[in-house]
Amino acid sequence: MSRIAIFGTGGAGREVAQWALECGHEDITLTIDDDYFTDTEINGFSVIPFSQIAIEDYVWIVAVADTLLREVIVKKIENTAKFETLIHPTAKVQLGSKIGEGVIIGPGTVISINSKIGKHSFVNGQVIIGHDCDINEYVTIAPRAVVLGNCKVEAHVFLGANSSIREKTTISSGTVVGMGSVVVTDLSNGIYVGNPARKIRGK
């Protein structure tokens, strides 16, 4: 197994470290920007300030829920780093589906047939992605969200916990769907909540 460096010591980073262990990785180090470095060990994992870590010595997982910040971090290290695609052993990726570089897929998640998950997306635990979906890059999908078949989710979308997306729906880049929201029509960029989901902020 490779030496794994996980960028992020918040909730997402600590969860992903646990998942990496469950995937069979044993040599796992956490790192964070120097301004936020406080502890040399978290949950038994060593923590190294980002300025002191040798990027080329590790395979990287960027475990940050914020979609824009995740891209900033990836861009900072991508010329030197190799990236791990982490799929929890209890997740199911069905036939014909394609999983991009640096993707994180949490426990109990199902990616149905012929779907695509774009690079550096974070699909949390117990998510269901229906058949023939196109999930773009740098998307975050929180626990227990359901995306039904033939949906298109563009880059930098955040789908909140327990949100539900109707089949054949397109969600525009940068959109945020609040937890528990039910999306029944295409969404332009903005923040949406409720059942049915309604825009509360954006153009």
Automatic annotation (TrEMBL):
Coiled coil: none annotated. Signal peptide: none annotated. InterPro entries: AcTrfase_PglD-like, PglD_N, Trans_hexapeptide_repeat, Trimer_LpxA-like_sf. Pfam families: PglD_N. Residues 3-77 form the PglD N-terminal domain. This is Unannotated protein. It comes from freshwater metagenome.
